[in-house]
Design a protein that fits this description.
The protein has 176 residues and is mainly α. The chain is built from six helices and no strands.
């Protein structure tokens, strides 16, 4: 399978360095707050909860998975939109947003055994909120492995953010 080559719009050097500084600060901040939810995670939470409401129309299983699906689908689709427009910074930003969102998914997965995170739900009392990943992992029969799965997803997410930065630098230099 061959993907079409994208002729990226030129990126002025000053913009490239501004983006690199932004990502360096962001990754340092995220590393310093490695396993705790940050303010950025609240941005993903809104999309996650909207996913439950949107996918509710397709049944209980779709509703359960819908939060995570939409949380990851939004930055992925936005990244595709930027790729179609050949805008390298937009693609890189959306890729970082996707992988950062995945770190939040990993934290939520790990919490399936610990159950320390406050749960958020739309349209129900807080005491009625159910942990998505307890239900998902239980239905898949892998709940005892929640921490290992979550850590693997977290590793994948961090690798994705770092590879995105490497790709961004490589593509930016190649288009000079």
């Amino acid at each position: 399978m061959h993907f079409p080559e994208i002729e990226w719009k030129p990126l002025p050097r000053i913009q490239f360095f501004a983006w690199i500084i932004f990502y360096a600060v962001l990754l340092c901040f995220l590393a310093a707050n490695f396993s705790t939810p940050t303010l950025l995670d609240n941005l993903h939470l809104v999309t996650h909860e909207a996913g439950h409401l949107l996918f509710r129309w397709f049944g209980e299983t779709a509703e359960l998975w819908g939060g995570t699906i939409l949380q990851l689908l939004v930055p992925a689709l936005l990244g595709v939109a930027f790729a179609v427009r050949a805008e390298l910074p937009g693609v890189a930003f959306c890729a970082v947003a996707f992988f950062h969102s995945l770190t939040g998914v990993a934290t939520y997965m790990i919490d399936a055994l610990q159950r320390e995170l406050p749960l958020v739900t739309v349209g129900a009392a807080p005491e009625e909120a159910q942990h998505d990943w307890v239900r998902i992992f239980s239905s898949l029969g892998v709940l005892p492995h929640a921490i290992q799965i979550g850590n693997a997803v977290r590793l994948l997410a961090w690798c994705g953010m770092i590879v995105t930065m490497i790709w961004f630098c490589w593509r930016s230099r190649k288009s000079d």
